[in-house]
Amino acid sequence: MIRNSFDVATRVSPRLAGFIENCLENEDLPEPVTLFAVRNHLARMLSPEFREAERLHRFDVGDSLLDELDALIEEFGADAPAADFTSAQASEALSRVIEAVLDDEMRENPPTLGAIREAIAQGLAARLVGDGVLEEEESETLMGEVEALIERFGEDALAEDFIRYE
Description:
By secondary structure, the protein is mainly α. The protein has two domains: about 80 residues, no CATH class; about 70 residues, no CATH class. Helices cover about 50% and strands about 0% of the residues. Helix 2 runs antiparallel to helix 4 and helix 6 packs antiparallel against helix 9. The longest helix is centred in the first third of the chain and has 12 residues.
């Protein structure tokens, strides 16, 4: 199947993106999690009355998550990886860490997620806490967050792609 060149995650409502994220973390769903698996999981969660009403189209469900999933499945296929339809952003604290690494004038190449993990392991988070850039409790979750991003996108993914700009 030929994919469009735009970011498909921009085509998904925040409600559906959140639901897909939950499905990606659900250990009961088969790997890899596809749009079809997400749709089936959602359909099982809905009440029998809702499913029957949707089947009979007795009311407008144009904005429902099922309709949104059906449209995505029609366009991209039932076997499309669900992860493609979510966008990942670093927390505000991890974004500050990434920016600190980006600001390192000695760096020749843009930092990857692996480089961010290494910088945290070598004490960058503690230094940023000491400088007042991070709170102590923020620094405690950084390694787990960057590990989760690495698991999903690989350690060679460019870290700056995950910065949350607010």
